[in-house]
Design brief:
Layout (H helix, E strand, L loop, with lengths): L19 E8 L9 E9 L5 E8 L9 H4 L3 H4 L5 H12 L3 E4 L2 H14 L8 E4 H8 L8 H7 L10 H22 L6 E2 L34 E4 L7 H10 L3 E3 L8 E3 L8 H9 L3 E2 L1 H8 L44 E5 L3 H13 L3 E3 L8 E4 L8 H8 L2 E3 L21 E3 L4 E4 L10 E7 L6 E9 L11 E2 L11 E7 L2 E6 L10 E9 L4 H4 L2 E7 L7 E5 L7 E10 L2 E11 L3 H7 L7
Parallel strand pairs: 1-4, 4-5, 7-8, 7-9, 9-10, 11-12, 11-13, 13-14, 15-24
Antiparallel strand pairs: 1-2, 2-3, 5-6, 16-26, 17-21, 17-23, 18-19, 18-22, 20-21, 22-25, 23-24, 25-26
Protein backbone atom coordinates (compact mmCIF):
# COMPACT_ATOMS: atom_id res chain seq x y z
CA UNK A 1 0.00 0.00 0.00
CA UNK A 2 1.16 3.54 -0.71
CA UNK A 3 2.17 5.56 2.33
CA UNK A 4 1.30 9.15 1.46
CA UNK A 5 2.67 12.24 3.10
CA UNK A 6 0.13 14.07 5.24
CA UNK A 7 2.11 17.32 5.26
CA UNK A 8 0.45 20.66 4.60
CA UNK A 9 2.10 21.28 1.20
CA UNK A 10 -0.35 22.84 -1.27
CA UNK A 11 -0.44 21.06 -4.66
CA UNK A 12 1.46 22.45 -7.63
CA UNK A 13 -0.48 20.90 -10.54
CA UNK A 14 -2.36 23.57 -12.54
CA UNK A 15 -5.37 21.24 -12.76
CA UNK A 16 -5.75 21.68 -9.00
CA UNK A 17 -5.75 25.50 -9.10
CA UNK A 18 -9.21 26.81 -8.28
CA UNK A 19 -10.76 29.45 -6.11
CA UNK A 20 -12.50 27.55 -3.32
CA UNK A 21 -15.51 28.20 -1.08
CA UNK A 22 -15.53 25.77 1.84
CA UNK A 23 -19.00 25.35 3.33
CA UNK A 24 -20.56 23.67 6.34
CA UNK A 25 -24.19 23.80 7.46
CA UNK A 26 -25.95 22.58 10.58
CA UNK A 27 -29.59 21.79 9.90
CA UNK A 28 -32.90 21.03 11.61
CA UNK A 29 -33.10 17.63 9.89
CA UNK A 30 -31.76 15.56 7.03
CA UNK A 31 -34.15 16.42 4.18
CA UNK A 32 -33.31 19.52 2.12
CA UNK A 33 -36.36 21.65 1.36
CA UNK A 34 -38.39 20.29 4.26
CA UNK A 35 -35.76 21.03 6.91
CA UNK A 36 -33.87 24.31 7.27
CA UNK A 37 -30.33 25.61 7.80
CA UNK A 38 -29.64 26.66 11.42
CA UNK A 39 -25.99 27.59 11.13
CA UNK A 40 -23.76 28.38 8.17
CA UNK A 41 -20.01 28.90 7.84
CA UNK A 42 -18.02 29.75 4.69
CA UNK A 43 -14.27 30.02 4.25
CA UNK A 44 -12.81 31.11 0.90
CA UNK A 45 -9.33 30.23 -0.39
CA UNK A 46 -7.47 31.25 -3.52
CA UNK A 47 -5.78 28.83 -5.93
CA UNK A 48 -2.67 28.68 -3.73
CA UNK A 49 -4.61 27.92 -0.57
CA UNK A 50 -4.45 31.39 0.94
CA UNK A 51 -7.46 32.49 2.99
CA UNK A 52 -9.38 35.29 1.25
CA UNK A 53 -12.64 35.51 3.19
CA UNK A 54 -14.64 34.11 6.08
CA UNK A 55 -18.24 34.29 7.27
CA UNK A 56 -20.33 32.43 9.83
CA UNK A 57 -23.69 32.98 11.44
CA UNK A 58 -26.58 31.36 13.23
CA UNK A 59 -29.91 31.54 11.40
CA UNK A 60 -33.52 31.86 12.42
CA UNK A 61 -35.12 28.96 10.51
CA UNK A 62 -38.71 29.73 11.41
CA UNK A 63 -39.20 26.12 12.51
CA UNK A 64 -38.29 23.65 15.24
CA UNK A 65 -34.48 23.27 15.41
CA UNK A 66 -34.68 19.48 15.41
CA UNK A 67 -31.96 17.28 16.98
CA UNK A 68 -30.56 19.71 19.59
CA UNK A 69 -28.58 16.85 21.18
CA UNK A 70 -26.45 16.74 18.00
CA UNK A 71 -25.90 20.38 17.07
CA UNK A 72 -26.72 22.12 20.38
CA UNK A 73 -28.73 24.86 18.67
CA UNK A 74 -31.78 25.53 20.82
CA UNK A 75 -34.61 27.95 20.10
CA UNK A 76 -33.08 30.30 22.69
CA UNK A 77 -29.69 30.33 20.95
CA UNK A 78 -31.29 30.99 17.57
CA UNK A 79 -33.57 33.74 18.85
CA UNK A 80 -32.68 37.06 17.22
CA UNK A 81 -30.47 35.46 14.54
CA UNK A 82 -30.92 36.72 10.97
CA UNK A 83 -33.03 34.88 8.42
CA UNK A 84 -31.42 33.39 5.33
CA UNK A 85 -33.05 36.09 3.21
CA UNK A 86 -31.10 38.73 5.14
CA UNK A 87 -27.73 37.09 4.53
CA UNK A 88 -28.35 35.66 1.02
CA UNK A 89 -26.58 38.53 -0.83
CA UNK A 90 -23.42 38.13 1.24
CA UNK A 91 -23.47 34.34 0.91
CA UNK A 92 -23.95 34.63 -2.84
CA UNK A 93 -20.98 36.99 -3.13
CA UNK A 94 -18.73 34.55 -1.26
CA UNK A 95 -19.80 31.56 -3.38
CA UNK A 96 -19.90 33.20 -6.81
CA UNK A 97 -17.22 31.99 -9.22
CA UNK A 98 -15.75 29.50 -6.76
CA UNK A 99 -15.78 25.71 -6.43
CA UNK A 100 -17.99 24.78 -3.47
CA UNK A 101 -16.26 22.32 -1.13
CA UNK A 102 -17.94 20.32 1.63
CA UNK A 103 -17.69 16.94 3.32
CA UNK A 104 -20.64 15.03 1.83
CA UNK A 105 -21.10 17.98 -0.53
CA UNK A 106 -24.48 17.04 -2.00
CA UNK A 107 -26.04 17.48 1.44
CA UNK A 108 -24.70 21.01 1.93
CA UNK A 109 -25.31 22.00 -1.70
CA UNK A 110 -28.93 20.82 -1.69
CA UNK A 111 -29.68 22.63 1.56
CA UNK A 112 -28.20 25.86 0.18
CA UNK A 113 -30.10 25.38 -3.08
CA UNK A 114 -33.40 25.18 -1.25
CA UNK A 115 -32.56 28.10 1.01
CA UNK A 116 -31.82 30.23 -2.05
CA UNK A 117 -35.06 28.97 -3.60
CA UNK A 118 -36.95 30.32 -0.58
CA UNK A 119 -35.67 33.80 -1.53
CA UNK A 120 -36.36 33.23 -5.26
CA UNK A 121 -32.73 32.74 -6.29
CA UNK A 122 -30.20 29.93 -6.84
CA UNK A 123 -26.73 28.87 -5.68
CA UNK A 124 -24.21 30.86 -7.73
CA UNK A 125 -21.66 28.06 -8.20
CA UNK A 126 -21.04 25.89 -11.24
CA UNK A 127 -18.91 23.12 -9.69
CA UNK A 128 -18.51 21.40 -6.37
CA UNK A 129 -15.98 19.06 -4.76
CA UNK A 130 -16.86 16.52 -2.10
CA UNK A 131 -13.91 15.81 0.23
CA UNK A 132 -15.59 12.55 1.22
CA UNK A 133 -15.65 11.42 -2.42
CA UNK A 134 -12.11 12.69 -2.96
CA UNK A 135 -10.83 10.63 -0.05
CA UNK A 136 -12.68 7.55 -1.28
CA UNK A 137 -10.51 7.90 -4.38
CA UNK A 138 -7.35 8.64 -2.38
CA UNK A 139 -7.89 5.70 0.01
CA UNK A 140 -5.79 7.17 2.84
CA UNK A 141 -5.75 3.98 4.96
CA UNK A 142 -7.80 5.45 7.81
CA UNK A 143 -10.34 3.38 9.77
CA UNK A 144 -13.13 5.43 8.19
CA UNK A 145 -13.60 8.68 6.27
CA UNK A 146 -15.44 10.74 8.87
CA UNK A 147 -14.44 14.36 9.30
CA UNK A 148 -12.74 13.82 12.67
CA UNK A 149 -10.82 10.77 11.44
CA UNK A 150 -9.52 12.59 8.36
CA UNK A 151 -8.65 15.62 10.48
CA UNK A 152 -6.40 13.46 12.67
CA UNK A 153 -4.86 11.82 9.59
CA UNK A 154 -4.02 15.13 7.93
CA UNK A 155 -2.78 16.72 11.17
CA UNK A 156 -5.71 19.10 11.76
CA UNK A 157 -6.96 19.80 15.28
CA UNK A 158 -10.72 19.42 15.68
CA UNK A 159 -12.04 21.46 18.59
CA UNK A 160 -15.83 21.20 18.40
CA UNK A 161 -17.64 18.68 16.21
CA UNK A 162 -20.95 19.75 14.63
CA UNK A 163 -20.03 23.41 14.99
CA UNK A 164 -20.17 24.95 11.50
CA UNK A 165 -17.37 27.45 12.10
CA UNK A 166 -14.97 24.86 13.50
CA UNK A 167 -15.99 22.24 10.94
CA UNK A 168 -15.18 24.56 8.03
CA UNK A 169 -11.77 25.36 9.57
CA UNK A 170 -11.10 21.63 9.89
CA UNK A 171 -12.32 21.16 6.32
CA UNK A 172 -9.67 23.58 5.05
CA UNK A 173 -6.92 21.40 6.52
CA UNK A 174 -8.52 18.24 5.14
CA UNK A 175 -8.77 19.85 1.68
CA UNK A 176 -5.09 20.79 1.78
CA UNK A 177 -4.03 17.28 2.81
CA UNK A 178 -6.42 15.59 0.39
CA UNK A 179 -5.26 17.65 -2.58
CA UNK A 180 -1.64 16.86 -1.76
CA UNK A 181 -2.39 13.13 -1.53
CA UNK A 182 -4.39 13.23 -4.77
CA UNK A 183 -1.50 14.96 -6.55
CA UNK A 184 0.92 12.25 -5.40
CA UNK A 185 -1.40 9.67 -6.96
CA UNK A 186 -2.01 11.69 -10.13
CA UNK A 187 -5.77 11.64 -9.60
CA UNK A 188 -8.24 13.72 -11.53
CA UNK A 189 -10.24 15.73 -9.03
CA UNK A 190 -13.88 14.50 -8.86
CA UNK A 191 -15.30 17.95 -9.64
CA UNK A 192 -19.02 17.74 -10.26
CA UNK A 193 -20.76 20.16 -12.59
CA UNK A 194 -23.72 21.85 -10.90
CA UNK A 195 -24.76 24.83 -13.03
CA UNK A 196 -27.06 27.35 -11.36
CA UNK A 197 -30.55 25.86 -11.16
CA UNK A 198 -33.84 27.64 -10.78
CA UNK A 199 -35.97 24.51 -10.41
CA UNK A 200 -35.34 23.96 -6.69
CA UNK A 201 -38.56 24.63 -4.85
CA UNK A 202 -39.52 24.72 -1.19
CA UNK A 203 -40.55 21.28 0.01
CA UNK A 204 -44.10 20.28 -0.87
CA UNK A 205 -45.04 16.86 0.54
CA UNK A 206 -45.93 14.46 -2.24
CA UNK A 207 -48.93 12.19 -1.82
CA UNK A 208 -48.31 9.04 -3.84
CA UNK A 209 -51.23 6.68 -4.23
CA UNK A 210 -51.80 4.83 -0.98
CA UNK A 211 -53.14 1.68 -2.64
CA UNK A 212 -51.62 -1.21 -4.52
CA UNK A 213 -52.31 -1.52 -8.24
CA UNK A 214 -55.19 -4.03 -8.58
CA UNK A 215 -54.69 -4.42 -12.34
CA UNK A 216 -56.88 -3.46 -15.27
CA UNK A 217 -60.48 -2.36 -15.43
CA UNK A 218 -62.61 -5.40 -16.22
CA UNK A 219 -65.31 -5.04 -18.93
CA UNK A 220 -68.40 -3.76 -17.14
CA UNK A 221 -66.52 -3.81 -13.82
CA UNK A 222 -65.85 -1.04 -11.29
CA UNK A 223 -62.83 1.14 -10.69
CA UNK A 224 -60.73 -0.01 -7.73
CA UNK A 225 -58.54 2.17 -5.56
CA UNK A 226 -54.91 2.00 -6.70
CA UNK A 227 -55.82 1.48 -10.36
CA UNK A 228 -53.51 3.37 -12.74
CA UNK A 229 -55.44 5.81 -14.90
CA UNK A 230 -54.21 7.91 -17.83
CA UNK A 231 -56.15 10.68 -19.62
CA UNK A 232 -55.51 11.75 -23.21
CA UNK A 233 -57.06 14.39 -25.44
CA UNK A 234 -59.67 17.07 -24.73
CA UNK A 235 -62.11 16.66 -21.83
CA UNK A 236 -65.38 18.44 -21.01
CA UNK A 237 -64.52 18.68 -17.32
CA UNK A 238 -61.20 20.49 -16.87
CA UNK A 239 -58.21 18.15 -16.73
CA UNK A 240 -57.20 19.53 -13.32
CA UNK A 241 -60.63 18.85 -11.82
CA UNK A 242 -60.77 15.38 -13.34
CA UNK A 243 -57.38 14.49 -11.91
CA UNK A 244 -58.22 15.97 -8.49
CA UNK A 245 -61.47 13.97 -8.25
CA UNK A 246 -59.66 10.80 -9.30
CA UNK A 247 -56.88 11.26 -6.74
CA UNK A 248 -59.45 11.95 -4.02
CA UNK A 249 -61.12 8.65 -4.93
CA UNK A 250 -57.84 6.76 -4.41
CA UNK A 251 -56.86 6.27 -8.06
CA UNK A 252 -53.27 6.52 -9.29
CA UNK A 253 -53.16 9.17 -12.02
CA UNK A 254 -50.40 8.66 -14.59
CA UNK A 255 -48.94 10.83 -17.33
CA UNK A 256 -47.98 7.87 -19.51
CA UNK A 257 -49.25 4.41 -20.47
CA UNK A 258 -47.62 1.02 -19.90
CA UNK A 259 -48.58 -2.59 -19.41
CA UNK A 260 -49.45 -1.72 -15.78
CA UNK A 261 -52.05 0.91 -16.72
CA UNK A 262 -55.60 -0.02 -15.69
CA UNK A 263 -57.60 2.20 -18.04
CA UNK A 264 -57.18 5.13 -20.45
CA UNK A 265 -59.81 7.86 -20.55
CA UNK A 266 -60.39 9.40 -24.00
CA UNK A 267 -63.20 11.07 -25.90
CA UNK A 268 -61.52 10.38 -29.24
CA UNK A 269 -60.22 6.78 -29.43
CA UNK A 270 -59.12 7.27 -33.04
CA UNK A 271 -56.93 10.31 -32.33
CA UNK A 272 -53.70 8.32 -32.67
CA UNK A 273 -51.92 9.93 -29.70
CA UNK A 274 -48.83 8.27 -28.21
CA UNK A 275 -50.85 7.17 -25.20
CA UNK A 276 -53.53 5.57 -27.39
CA UNK A 277 -50.95 3.78 -29.51
CA UNK A 278 -49.29 2.43 -26.39
CA UNK A 279 -52.68 1.39 -24.96
CA UNK A 280 -53.50 -0.51 -28.15
CA UNK A 281 -50.10 -2.23 -28.06
CA UNK A 282 -50.52 -3.25 -24.41
CA UNK A 283 -54.22 -4.10 -24.64
CA UNK A 284 -55.23 -1.45 -22.08
CA UNK A 285 -59.01 -0.81 -22.06
CA UNK A 286 -60.42 2.60 -23.08
CA UNK A 287 -63.45 4.43 -21.66
CA UNK A 288 -64.94 7.78 -22.58
CA UNK A 289 -65.32 10.66 -20.14
CA UNK A 290 -69.04 10.20 -19.30
CA UNK A 291 -68.44 6.52 -18.52
CA UNK A 292 -65.43 7.37 -16.40
CA UNK A 293 -67.38 9.98 -14.43
CA UNK A 294 -70.08 7.40 -13.66
CA UNK A 295 -67.43 4.90 -12.54
CA UNK A 296 -65.90 7.57 -10.28
CA UNK A 297 -69.12 7.66 -8.27
CA UNK A 298 -68.52 4.12 -7.01
CA UNK A 299 -64.81 3.35 -6.69
CA UNK A 300 -64.32 0.10 -4.78
CA UNK A 301 -61.90 -0.14 -1.82
CA UNK A 302 -58.36 -1.19 -2.66
CA UNK A 303 -55.58 -2.84 -0.70
CA UNK A 304 -53.49 -0.32 1.21
CA UNK A 305 -49.75 -0.39 0.65
CA UNK A 306 -47.70 -1.80 3.48
CA UNK A 307 -50.13 -4.56 4.39
CA UNK A 308 -49.10 -8.16 3.91
CA UNK A 309 -50.88 -10.31 1.36
CA UNK A 310 -52.64 -13.25 3.08
CA UNK A 311 -52.00 -15.51 0.10
CA UNK A 312 -48.95 -14.77 -2.07
CA UNK A 313 -49.79 -14.59 -5.75
CA UNK A 314 -47.16 -16.41 -7.84
CA UNK A 315 -46.11 -14.13 -10.68
CA UNK A 316 -43.11 -14.72 -12.95
CA UNK A 317 -40.19 -12.45 -12.12
CA UNK A 318 -39.92 -9.95 -15.00
CA UNK A 319 -36.21 -9.28 -14.59
CA UNK A 320 -34.30 -12.45 -13.72
CA UNK A 321 -31.84 -12.35 -10.87
CA UNK A 322 -28.99 -14.85 -11.17
CA UNK A 323 -28.53 -17.48 -8.55
CA UNK A 324 -25.54 -17.23 -6.29
CA UNK A 325 -22.30 -18.03 -8.06
CA UNK A 326 -19.70 -19.57 -5.76
CA UNK A 327 -16.22 -18.11 -5.65
CA UNK A 328 -13.51 -19.98 -7.57
CA UNK A 329 -12.32 -22.90 -5.50
CA UNK A 330 -8.76 -22.25 -4.37
CA UNK A 331 -8.76 -23.56 -0.80
CA UNK A 332 -5.01 -24.10 -0.58
CA UNK A 333 -4.19 -20.55 -1.73
CA UNK A 334 -7.20 -18.65 -0.39
CA UNK A 335 -5.26 -16.38 1.97
CA UNK A 336 -2.17 -15.80 -0.17
CA UNK A 337 -3.15 -12.21 -1.01
CA UNK A 338 -5.16 -11.47 2.12
CA UNK A 339 -5.11 -7.76 2.93
CA UNK A 340 -3.79 -6.82 -0.53
CA UNK A 341 -5.52 -4.55 -3.04
CA UNK A 342 -4.76 -5.22 -6.69
CA UNK A 343 -5.10 -2.87 -9.66
CA UNK A 344 -5.17 -4.46 -13.12
CA UNK A 345 -4.04 -2.40 -16.13
CA UNK A 346 -4.35 -3.23 -19.84
CA UNK A 347 -5.62 -6.39 -21.49
CA UNK A 348 -8.97 -7.01 -23.11
CA UNK A 349 -12.11 -6.59 -21.03
CA UNK A 350 -12.33 -10.37 -20.62
CA UNK A 351 -8.65 -10.78 -19.71
CA UNK A 352 -8.77 -7.96 -17.15
CA UNK A 353 -11.94 -9.40 -15.65
CA UNK A 354 -10.30 -12.81 -15.35
CA UNK A 355 -7.25 -11.29 -13.65
CA UNK A 356 -9.39 -9.42 -11.13
CA UNK A 357 -11.43 -12.54 -10.39
CA UNK A 358 -8.24 -14.51 -9.82
CA UNK A 359 -6.91 -11.85 -7.42
CA UNK A 360 -10.15 -11.90 -5.42
CA UNK A 361 -10.11 -15.71 -5.31
CA UNK A 362 -6.66 -15.45 -3.76
CA UNK A 363 -7.94 -13.19 -0.97
CA UNK A 364 -7.28 -9.71 -2.40
CA UNK A 365 -9.74 -6.98 -3.29
CA UNK A 366 -9.74 -5.54 -6.82
CA UNK A 367 -9.37 -1.80 -7.40
CA UNK A 368 -10.67 0.16 -10.39
CA UNK A 369 -8.58 3.31 -9.76
CA UNK A 370 -5.10 3.99 -8.41
CA UNK A 371 -5.32 4.91 -4.74
CA UNK A 372 -3.20 4.85 -1.59
CA UNK A 373 -4.77 1.50 -0.68
CA UNK A 374 -3.39 -0.25 -3.79
CA UNK A 375 -0.56 -2.62 -2.89
CA UNK A 376 0.04 -4.43 -6.19
CA UNK A 377 -0.37 -3.69 -9.90
CA UNK A 378 -0.84 -6.39 -12.54
CA UNK A 379 0.10 -5.22 -16.05
CA UNK A 380 -1.49 -7.08 -18.96
CA UNK A 381 -0.59 -6.47 -22.64
CA UNK A 382 -1.10 -2.79 -23.42
CA UNK A 383 -1.08 -1.79 -19.77
CA UNK A 384 2.50 -0.57 -19.97
CA UNK A 385 1.25 2.50 -21.88
CA UNK A 386 -1.36 3.40 -19.24
CA UNK A 387 -0.74 6.97 -18.09
CA UNK A 388 -0.79 5.78 -14.46
CA UNK A 389 2.37 3.70 -14.92
CA UNK A 390 4.61 6.75 -14.42
CA UNK A 391 2.91 7.52 -11.13
CA UNK A 392 3.06 3.84 -10.08
CA UNK A 393 6.81 3.83 -10.65
CA UNK A 394 7.28 7.00 -8.58
CA UNK A 395 5.24 5.49 -5.75
CA UNK A 396 7.29 2.31 -5.83
CA UNK A 397 4.36 -0.09 -6.02
CA UNK A 398 4.89 -3.78 -6.71
CA UNK A 399 4.31 -4.40 -10.44
CA UNK A 400 3.63 -7.90 -11.83
CA UNK A 401 2.64 -9.61 -15.04
CA UNK A 402 -0.32 -11.97 -15.40
CA UNK A 403 1.78 -15.01 -14.40
CA UNK A 404 2.12 -13.62 -10.87
CA UNK A 405 -1.53 -14.40 -10.18
CA UNK A 406 -0.90 -18.05 -10.96
CA UNK A 407 1.84 -18.35 -8.34
CA UNK A 408 1.92 -15.17 -6.23
CA UNK A 409 4.60 -14.69 -3.60
CA UNK A 410 3.09 -14.44 -0.14
CA UNK A 411 4.30 -11.10 1.21
CA UNK A 412 2.62 -9.08 3.96
CA UNK A 413 0.72 -6.04 2.71
CA UNK A 414 2.02 -2.71 4.02
CA UNK A 415 -0.31 -1.07 6.48
CA UNK A 416 -3.23 -2.68 8.19
CA UNK A 417 -5.06 -5.36 6.17
CA UNK A 418 -8.71 -4.66 5.43
CA UNK A 419 -9.77 -7.64 7.52
CA UNK A 420 -13.12 -6.11 8.46
CA UNK A 421 -14.23 -5.63 4.85
CA UNK A 422 -16.05 -8.53 3.23
CA UNK A 423 -14.89 -8.96 -0.37
CA UNK A 424 -17.84 -10.34 -2.31
CA UNK A 425 -17.69 -12.23 -5.57
CA UNK A 426 -20.58 -12.16 -8.02
CA UNK A 427 -23.61 -13.81 -6.41
CA UNK A 428 -22.18 -13.72 -2.88
CA UNK A 429 -24.47 -12.75 0.01
CA UNK A 430 -23.79 -10.88 3.23
CA UNK A 431 -26.09 -10.57 6.25
CA UNK A 432 -26.35 -6.91 7.24
CA UNK A 433 -26.34 -5.87 10.89
CA UNK A 434 -29.26 -3.73 12.02
CA UNK A 435 -29.20 0.02 11.49
CA UNK A 436 -29.04 2.55 14.29
CA UNK A 437 -32.69 3.48 14.80
CA UNK A 438 -31.76 6.34 17.16
CA UNK A 439 -29.90 8.26 14.48
CA UNK A 440 -31.76 6.93 11.46
CA UNK A 441 -28.55 5.69 9.89
CA UNK A 442 -29.13 4.16 6.47
CA UNK A 443 -27.13 1.70 4.40
CA UNK A 444 -25.41 3.26 1.41
CA UNK A 445 -24.32 1.36 -1.66
CA UNK A 446 -21.80 3.41 -3.66
CA UNK A 447 -20.68 2.56 -7.19
CA UNK A 448 -17.38 3.74 -8.64
CA UNK A 449 -15.85 3.21 -12.06
CA UNK A 450 -12.66 4.15 -13.90
CA UNK A 451 -11.87 7.89 -13.75
CA UNK A 452 -11.07 7.95 -17.47
CA UNK A 453 -14.55 6.71 -18.43
CA UNK A 454 -15.95 9.02 -21.12
CA UNK A 455 -19.62 7.94 -21.19
CA UNK A 456 -22.34 8.84 -18.69
CA UNK A 457 -23.37 6.15 -16.19
CA UNK A 458 -26.49 6.55 -14.04
CA UNK A 459 -27.38 4.68 -10.88
CA UNK A 460 -31.05 3.80 -10.25
CA UNK A 461 -33.00 1.87 -7.60
CA UNK A 462 -36.25 -0.10 -7.65
CA UNK A 463 -38.07 -0.80 -4.37
CA UNK A 464 -40.12 -3.90 -5.26
CA UNK A 465 -42.72 -6.04 -3.56
CA UNK A 466 -43.16 -9.81 -3.43
CA UNK A 467 -44.20 -9.84 -7.10
CA UNK A 468 -40.86 -8.19 -8.05
CA UNK A 469 -42.80 -5.08 -9.16
CA UNK A 470 -42.71 -1.54 -7.79
CA UNK A 471 -45.93 -0.82 -5.84
CA UNK A 472 -45.95 2.67 -7.43
CA UNK A 473 -43.88 4.71 -9.85
CA UNK A 474 -42.49 6.67 -6.87
CA UNK A 475 -40.67 3.45 -5.88
CA UNK A 476 -38.35 3.99 -8.86
CA UNK A 477 -35.53 6.33 -7.80
CA UNK A 478 -33.38 7.79 -10.58
CA UNK A 479 -31.72 11.04 -11.71
CA UNK A 480 -35.12 12.62 -12.52
CA UNK A 481 -36.62 11.69 -9.13
CA UNK A 482 -33.61 11.20 -6.82
CA UNK A 483 -35.58 10.66 -3.61
CA UNK A 484 -38.57 8.56 -2.66
CA UNK A 485 -41.35 10.79 -1.29
CA UNK A 486 -40.96 9.28 2.19
CA UNK A 487 -37.17 9.68 2.11
CA UNK A 488 -36.41 5.97 2.53
CA UNK A 489 -34.46 5.64 -0.74
CA UNK A 490 -32.17 8.38 -2.05
CA UNK A 491 -29.75 8.82 -4.91
CA UNK A 492 -26.59 10.91 -4.50
CA UNK A 493 -24.02 11.95 -7.10
CA UNK A 494 -20.63 12.54 -5.50
CA UNK A 495 -18.46 12.87 -8.61
CA UNK A 496 -18.33 12.21 -12.36
CA UNK A 497 -17.53 8.53 -11.77
CA UNK A 498 -19.24 7.87 -8.44
CA UNK A 499 -22.89 7.66 -7.42
CA UNK A 500 -24.60 6.12 -4.41
CA UNK A 501 -28.01 4.88 -3.27
CA UNK A 502 -28.93 5.15 0.42
CA UNK A 503 -31.70 2.99 1.85
CA UNK A 504 -33.23 3.40 5.31
CA UNK A 505 -34.01 -0.28 5.84
CA UNK A 506 -35.72 0.29 9.19
CA UNK A 507 -38.35 2.58 7.65
CA UNK A 508 -39.09 0.73 4.41
CA UNK A 509 -42.75 -0.35 4.16
CA UNK A 510 -43.33 -4.01 4.97
CA UNK A 511 -44.52 -4.65 1.43
CA UNK A 512 -41.05 -3.83 0.06
CA UNK A 513 -39.20 -7.12 -0.14
CA UNK A 514 -36.19 -6.02 -2.14
CA UNK A 515 -34.32 -2.91 -3.29
CA UNK A 516 -32.62 -3.51 -6.63
CA UNK A 517 -29.74 -1.19 -7.51
CA UNK A 518 -28.71 -0.94 -11.15
CA UNK A 519 -26.48 1.09 -13.45
CA UNK A 520 -27.43 2.29 -16.91
CA UNK A 521 -25.30 3.82 -19.64
CA UNK A 522 -26.57 6.85 -21.51
CA UNK A 523 -25.99 6.49 -25.25
CA UNK A 524 -24.52 3.73 -27.37
CA UNK A 525 -21.57 2.80 -25.13
CA UNK A 526 -21.50 -0.54 -23.30
CA UNK A 527 -20.01 -1.81 -20.06
CA UNK A 528 -16.98 -3.08 -21.94
CA UNK A 529 -16.21 0.63 -22.50
CA UNK A 530 -16.75 1.40 -18.82
CA UNK A 531 -14.84 -1.58 -17.45
CA UNK A 532 -15.24 -2.88 -13.93
CA UNK A 533 -17.64 -1.25 -11.48
CA UNK A 534 -16.69 -1.36 -7.81
CA UNK A 535 -19.43 -1.25 -5.19
CA UNK A 536 -19.00 -0.61 -1.48
CA UNK A 537 -21.60 -0.93 1.27
CA UNK A 538 -21.42 1.34 4.31
CA UNK A 539 -23.73 2.12 7.22
CA UNK A 540 -23.44 5.84 7.94
CA UNK A 541 -21.77 8.82 6.24
CA UNK A 542 -18.02 8.29 6.03
CA UNK A 543 -18.18 4.96 7.85
CA UNK A 544 -15.78 2.13 7.10
CA UNK A 545 -17.11 -0.16 4.34
CA UNK A 546 -18.68 -3.40 5.49
CA UNK A 547 -18.46 -5.02 2.06
CA UNK A 548 -16.85 -4.46 -1.32
CA UNK A 549 -17.29 -6.12 -4.71
CA UNK A 550 -15.81 -5.48 -8.15
CA UNK A 551 -18.19 -6.45 -10.95
CA UNK A 552 -16.97 -7.31 -14.44
CA UNK A 553 -19.99 -9.32 -15.53
CA UNK A 554 -21.27 -7.03 -18.29
CA UNK A 555 -19.54 -6.56 -21.67
CA UNK A 556 -21.89 -5.64 -24.54
CA UNK A 557 -24.70 -4.74 -22.13
CA UNK A 558 -26.00 -1.20 -21.49
CA UNK A 559 -27.71 -1.84 -18.16
CA UNK A 560 -26.50 -3.93 -15.23
CA UNK A 561 -28.03 -5.02 -11.94
CA UNK A 562 -25.23 -4.28 -9.48
CA UNK A 563 -26.66 -5.45 -6.18
CA UNK A 564 -29.80 -5.98 -4.20
CA UNK A 565 -30.84 -5.53 -0.59
CA UNK A 566 -33.50 -8.06 0.35
CA UNK A 567 -35.40 -9.23 3.41
CA UNK A 568 -34.36 -12.45 5.07
CA UNK A 569 -36.56 -13.23 8.05
CA UNK A 570 -36.38 -10.23 10.37
CA UNK A 571 -33.17 -8.94 8.84
CA UNK A 572 -31.69 -7.81 5.54
CA UNK A 573 -29.08 -9.20 3.21
CA UNK A 574 -26.84 -7.72 0.52
CA UNK A 575 -26.21 -9.67 -2.67
CA UNK A 576 -23.60 -8.71 -5.28
CA UNK A 577 -25.34 -9.46 -8.58
CA UNK A 578 -23.49 -8.24 -11.70
CA UNK A 579 -26.18 -9.23 -14.24
CA UNK A 580 -26.11 -7.25 -17.50
CA UNK A 581 -28.77 -6.62 -20.17
CA UNK A 582 -28.46 -5.33 -23.73
CA UNK A 583 -31.56 -3.12 -23.50
CA UNK A 584 -31.70 0.39 -22.08
CA UNK A 585 -33.00 1.84 -18.84
CA UNK A 586 -36.58 2.29 -20.10
CA UNK A 587 -36.95 -1.43 -20.82
CA UNK A 588 -35.36 -2.34 -17.50
CA UNK A 589 -37.79 -0.04 -15.68
CA UNK A 590 -40.82 -1.50 -17.48
CA UNK A 591 -39.73 -4.96 -16.37
CA UNK A 592 -40.26 -3.79 -12.79
CA UNK A 593 -43.65 -2.26 -13.59
CA UNK A 594 -42.61 1.38 -13.96
CA UNK A 595 -44.58 3.55 -16.37
CA UNK A 596 -42.02 5.13 -18.70
CA UNK A 597 -43.09 7.95 -20.99
CA UNK A 598 -42.19 7.53 -24.65
Amino acid sequence: MVLLSSGPKWPTLPDYFHDWALVDVETSGLRPGRDRVLSLAILTLDAQGNRTGEFSTLLDPGCDPGPVHIHGLTRARLAGAPTFEEIAPRVGALLRGRVLVAHNAQFDYDFLAHEFAHVRSWVPVSRRLCTLALNRLVGPGTPDLKLGTLAAHYGVRQEKAHDAQDDVRVLSGILRGSLGAAEQLGLTLPLLECPPRQDYKPYVPKTPCAYRNPGRLAPGGPLVQGMKVAITGETRVSREELVARSVAAGLNMMTSVSGQTGVVVTNDPGAGSAKLKRAAHEGVPLVDEPTYLRLLEDVRPGQAKGTARPVPVPVPVPVPVPVSVPAPSLPAQRAVLAGRRVLVLGGTHEAAAEARARAVALGASAAVNLSASVSDVVVLPGGETDRRMTRIAVLGLRVHDADWLRAPVQEPAEGKPEDTVAVLVRGAVLDLPGTDTDTGTAWTLAATWRQQTACEVDLVAFAVDGRELVPGDEDFVFYGAPEHPDGTVRLATDGPTEQAVSVDLERLPLEIHRVVIAAAIDGAATFSDVGAVEITATCGIGAAPAARATLDAATTERTMILAELYRRGEGWRLRAVGQGYDHGLADLARGYGVDVAE
